[in-house]
Amino acid sequence: MKKRFGIALLGCLLLIFTTACGAGNDKTTLQLAEVTRSLFYAPQYVAIEKGFFEDEGIDIELQTTWGGDKTMTALLSGGADVALVGSETSIYVHAQDSKDKAINFAQLTQTDGTFLVAKEPKPDFTWDDIKGSKFLGQRVGGMPQMVGEYVLKQHDIDPHGDLNLLQNIDFANIPGAFSSGDAEYVQLFEPTASTFEQEGEGHIIASFGEESGSVPYTTFMTKESFLNEDEETVKRFTKAIHEAQRWVEAHSAKEIADVIQPYFEDTEKEILASSIDRYKNQGSFASDPVLDKDGWNNLKAIMDEAGELPEDVPYEDLVNTTIAEEVIGNEGG
């Protein structure tokens, strides 16, 4: 009798201990798909490394899906709960009459993140210098290419008439193609642009982000069904992102580089810091997660100018600011 009682008591103690421990480690796992691995997304990596997601009870499983199409496929098929990708992709999905819309709920970057890099030094560069050149462009229909064309047109340059525009190289292979090929100009993200400059393979001569103005370049989005079913988790996710945005705004480029170094192990920390500093100086990192209407309209204008706007989707159809505004409103509480 005593033996059975002792076994039963031990079992109860183990159950209580296990339950108590489990309660303390009860986390929501979220599959997060990023469209590419980019220094442009520094606040996201800060949110992970500084434990801001963990503070909100979220365990992030990050995957890099390498391309807008693949990222949206992952999101819509259930391979990801949240996607970090260009807002234009939500418009493309909407135009295909998707039953489950992709809703933009938190903005991460608010300018284009590419820089114009030339093979040769251009100390007296003017945009007219590009005319007649071989220009290695980005993927058709993607934000880098659309912003690039938009900026060129603002400088009275016809991208398809005044340039020998190359658009047949995959995103991941563009740096190598520029380095080994005969293109005179290319659009590159950081830290690749600064690395090329350091190694003498290219020279940064202009910023497309500074030229194009505010635009919701990369945002976090999720399916409308997920948002409706688990709004609280999306809210906690947004709180973590906003905490990271505030941290990035308050800290130096070097401090940020120290935190996100694990995501860019092949890049020297000095290059990371200088690249982050360049993004900070031109206001690329959004200071809060609210995607405003002016930015959305600028996005559609850029897409329309490039001939890639399939339909005029109202701001209210694909953008949810309620969660982000609530997060900002409660940040002091």
Structure keywords:
single chain, 333 residues, D-Maltodextrin-Binding Protein, domain 2, 2 domains, 5-stranded mixed β-sheet, 10 strands, signal, ABC transporter substrate-binding protein
Q: In short, what is this structure?
A:
The protein is an alpha/beta fold. The protein is built from 16 helices and ten strands.
Task: List strands and helices in order, with pairings.
Blueprint: H1 2-24, E1 28-34, H2 42-49, H3 52-55, E2 58-64, H4 68-77, E3 82-85, H5 88-95, E4 102-109, E5 114-118, E6 134-136, H6 143-154, E7 164-166, H7 174-180, E8 185-189, H8 192-198, E9 203-207, H9 208-212, E10 218-223, H10 224-229, H11 231-250, H12 253-260, H13 269-281, H14 293-305, H15 315-318, H16 322-329
Parallel strand pairs: 1-2, 1-3, 6-7, 6-8
Antiparallel strand pairs: 3-10, 4-10, 5-8, 5-9
CA-based shape: globular
What proportion of the residues is helical, as a percent range? 40-55%
> What's the number of domains?
2
CATH topology of the largest domain: D-Maltodextrin-Binding Protein, domain 2
Number of strands: 10
Based on the structure given, which CATH architecture of the largest domain is correct?
A: 3-Layer(aba) Sandwich
Strand content: 15-25%
CATH superfamily label of the largest domain: Periplasmic binding protein-like II
Subcellular location: Periplasm
Protein name: ABC transporter substrate-binding protein
Pfam families: NMT1_2
Signal peptide: 1-22
Model description:
The protein has helices at 2-24, 42-49, 52-55, 68-77, 88-95, 143-154, 174-180, 192-198, 208-212, 224-229, 231-250, 253-260, 269-281, 293-305, 315-318, 322-329; strands at 28-34, 58-64, 82-85, 102-109, 114-118, 134-136, 164-166, 185-189, 203-207, 218-223. With 333 residues, the protein is an alpha/beta fold. The chain has a 5-stranded mixed sheet with strand order 2-1-3-10-4, sandwiched between helices. It has a 5-stranded mixed sheet with strand order 7-6-8-5-9, with helices on both faces. The protein is globular, with a radius of gyration of 23 Å. This is ABC transporter substrate-binding protein. It is found in: Periplasm.
